[in-house]
Write a structure and sequence with these properties.
The protein is an all-alpha fold and 260 residues long. The chain has helices at 3-19, 26-49, 52-61, 66-81, 85-103, 108-124, 130-145, 150-165, 169-186, 192-209, 213-233, 239-256. It folds into 3 domains: 1-33; 55-127; 131-260, Serine Threonine Protein Phosphatase 5, Tetratricopeptide repeat.
């Protein structure tokens, strides 16, 4: 079992054994309360590193079992979906050395873990040179998985987003265009990555249009096509579809009523 879970289980056993040597009465209850409180703290610390079901699988199958390593990586991804990026990074950092040691630096699971870790750290400001780090990872993903693999496309999308956030809009626009072309070719025009990249490209062009009516109209037309595709592919109630549709509605409302 995971080392993290050995501590609370050991503490629980020690509490039970210690209770045998404590006289009955108030002292025994104090002992139990203190030790059980300590066990609860240890359990919470262990859960932060490895969920108990995954720790139990480690005990049954061994810590180096690929399925166990994959479960640990997925538990980190689940934390991100639950709005806990710090915990996601913590778990990714804990499992990444084991993935490299057991499966190698070029294994798809290892590369996927690196990608998610860089994405979280880059968005949180915990990565000093995030553009270089993501470019290096994209090169590894392209070499191992190919240019059209979803993980490669996701890394390219993060790189384009960060270029845009850093004010390098010309480079960002070129990166989005390349990504849309590559994603359409390899995973199809209706793939989630393709649609999100198209929406980001439309947003960038709309923001850069300023007072240019033709450019703004073109961005609105592009986004309208994206929303139509999202409603057809992802569904009208999908969070990505809903947020994109709301943005498009804001654009069209602003154009009908230009008064500040």
């Amino acid at each position: 079992m995971s080392t993290a879970w050995r501590r609370p289980l050991g503490g629980l056993v020690a509490a039970g054994v210690g209770a045998l040597f404590v006289p009955m009465g108030g002292t025994l209850w104090i002992h139990l309360c203190v030790t059980l409180g300590a066990v609860v703290v240890l359990v919470r610390m262990a859960s932060r590193e490895v969920p108990f079901p995954v720790a139990a699988a480690q005990w049954r199958l061994g810590g180096d079992e690929p399925a166990v390593l994959r479960a640990r990586a997925l538990s980190a991804a689940a934390c991100l979906q639950q709005g806990q990026p710090g915990l996601a990074v913590f778990r990714r950092n804990a499992v990444l050395p084991d993935l490299v040691r057991v499966q190698g630096a070029d294994h798809p699971d290892t590369l996927s873990s690196r990608c998610l870790s860089l994405q979280i750290r880059g968005e949180s400001g915990d990565l000093p040179d995030r553009l270089t780090a993501m470019a290096d990872l994209t090169a590894d993903l392209t070499r191992v998985l190919g240019p059209g693999h979803p993980d490669t496309l996701a890394a390219r999308y993060s790189h384009a987003e960060w270029l845009n956030q850093d004010g390098r809009t010309d480079e960002a626009e070129a990166a989005y265009v390349d990504l849309v072309t590559m994603a359409t070719e390899h995973v199809g025009a209706d793939h989630n990555v393709t649609l999100i990249a198209r929406s980001s490209l439309a947003i960038l062009r709309h923001d850069r249009a300023g007072g240019t009516v033709a450019a703004a109209d073109e961005a609105v037309a592009d986004m309208t096509a994206v929303v139509d595709a999202m409603e057809r592919v992802l569904g009208p109630d999908d969070p990505t579809t809903s947020s994109t549709r709301r943005l498009l509605a804001q654009w069209t409302t602003t154009r009908r009523d230009p008064t500040p």
